[in-house]
């Protein structure tokens, strides 16, 4: 083994170990890369179909991903509105049930009388939920939105990364093929296309 092959082998081993370390330290990065590769592979046939019909490659990528993002946003809107309506109905039903319990349990059995003596009046529950100036519920909703913002930003980053994979597909294929022996490049390209 000459010095050049030894240097290449050492560099590949070190890059592999660094990659494994990064993936163990940041597993969400691995998930995001896998999602982006899957989205790029799923959209590639549409881009190729549009390109074969005479559309420029960049415009085909743009239209395809605009359609993907529109579908994603549409699903969020369609699912989000009924979810908010159901959340409002649930809140109203729970508050109505609490008022009934607060009014009827003092006249019930011994257990109900004991529990009703510990319950705060409904007005205090409303104040607790809404806060002193109506900010309690807003803070709760903000925390829910903030909790969903992280995964949504990761999905958005995965879509941007998949656009990058789609635009530079030939460059990446050539790069990976250059690392392989010449006699196995065609076989690797065939396997990777079949995986897609």
Task: Name a few traits of the molecule.
196 residues, mainly alpha
Question: Could you characterize what this model shows?
Answer:
- By secondary structure, the protein is an all-alpha fold.
- Helices cover 85% and strands 0% of the residues.
- The chain is built from 8 helices and no strands.
- The chain has helices at 3-25, 27-52, 57-104, 110-116, 122-130, 136-167, 169-178, 185-195.
- Helix 2 packs across helix 3.
- It is elongated, with a radius of gyration of 29 Å.
- The protein starts with a helix and ends with a helix.
Taking all residues together, what is the mean pLDDT? Answer: 80
Which bin fits the share of residues in helices?
over 70%
- Count every helix, treating DSSP H or I runs of 4 or more residues as helices: 8
Number of strands: 0
Secondary-structure-derived class: mainly alpha
Largest sheet: none
Rounded to the nearest angstrom, the radius of gyration is 29 Å
Distance between the termini: 36 Å
What's the SSE pattern? HHHHHHHH
Unreliable spans: none
What's the arrangement of secondary structure elements?
Blueprint: H1 3-25, H2 27-52, H3 57-104, H4 110-116, H5 122-130, H6 136-167, H7 169-178, H8 185-195
Helix pairs in contact: 1-2, 2-3, 2-6, 3-6
Offer a concise description of the structure.
The chain is mainly α. It contains 8 helices and no strands.
